[in-house]
Task: structure prediction
Amino acid sequence: MRRENLQTFLDSSPTARLLRSDLAPYVLDFFQQTFKSGERLVWGQTELKSHLTLYQQTLSATPARGLQGSPDRYLTQWVDAAWLKRYLVAHSAEPQYELTRHAEEALRFVDAALSRNSQLVGTESRLRLVIETLKDIVRGASADPQQRLAYLRAQRASIDAEIAAIEQGQSVQTYQPVQVRERFQTAVELLKTLQADFRAVEERFQSIAREVQLRQSQGCASRGEILGAALAAEEELKSKDEALSFYAFVAFLFSPTEQAALIECINQLQQLDALADQADALSHLRRMVPALLAEADKVMRTTARLTATLHRLLNAQSVAHRARLATVLHDIREAALRLGESSIRPDIECPLAVDLDLGSPWARTFWTPAATFEHAIEAAAPVQSTEALAMATTFARMRRLDLPRLRNTIREITRDGDSHTLREVSERFPISGGVVELLGYLQIAHDDGHIIDPNQTETILIPALHDTDSIQLSVPRTVFIPPKTISKTKTGRKPK
Result:
């Protein structure tokens, strides 16, 4: 790993932002309880808000002081931070929410770190798993029939020897309790990793569907070209390694025989005395089959939406509708051309707004000629890779000014009907975006008709970020007033 790549990842990755967030313990715990502890992967907005409200009520009974704001504000922030994905579906009138791959990566990282502190580190089982996997690769990649026969005969001889030993009354060799727990933990860790790996294929299918819908809406290509591009992209996806592995997984998991054998194996594991203290892992294992089926079904629904998009594209009725629309637009253009060439002008009425505020004519500036520029073609200079990486790193560190989020914060703090100063807002909702966010508050106060008193000042503390120190700034005293007060006192002119 290069230092520049690590710096860019830590500055721009939503996964890193989630792990470094002050509210990370509460957000990750809420995500784990809501999206990972059951069989449900997608939640509607009403139900998710209800779950978040109940979670906040449980926090209020403890000394913890996290997630004290409005559930709507937190859901919006988590979507903007790329921790939750929000979208609409045809059968529901409200948005649906699910975890993004960035949130999945953060949950997997934290779970692995905590598990290593509380569970034994399985070295022997992992080594055997590695060796068996390598041997399986050698056997499966070889097309030599003699080598395959030698392996099968050796396996048969080992099985026959074990059968003969048992028939002669010898004791059956079993795993020690520590070996059972070690192998069980390895299997559970692999299962958690598997459940977090479905997002790559799903996101790729969603990108294909968006591309098809975009080309269809633009109308820049024929139906055949759009269909050909979509089918080519889908075929390319199905030929990739992750897609081949996913479809093999679906064929294996959706087999009734394999499901029954897997459920029977899980039931037998629950009877082992060596795993009596593994209640959480056993609970996670009991949800294994339903959870994997839900994950696979979700990805399959994404492919079904792609198929529905192609079906609408080939629908003859929609094609005829588009043809009629094109004909109407063509007739409108022809009528406009004929009207422009005719000498008879129809009577056209134009309503005038007579209540407009007129300014002084002396306020207009004198005419000045437009500036002229000489067009010079500069020679193309090669861009150094180090300079490009430095510019990309600087661009990744730039912070976006989110004015809608700041307005939501102002509405939240003035909801009680009282006015609050900018300093009170910054103390209740600490500034996380640096000086740019402070300027955003001042811009909103100017644009929305709040009170700005240039004769008084107040000191605002901007907390330290990962690459800067905390600073204090003196700004004009700004008072944010409730929306109803603004509507009564606003005179139509913005404050200077």
Q: What stands out?
A: Residues 403-489 form one domain.
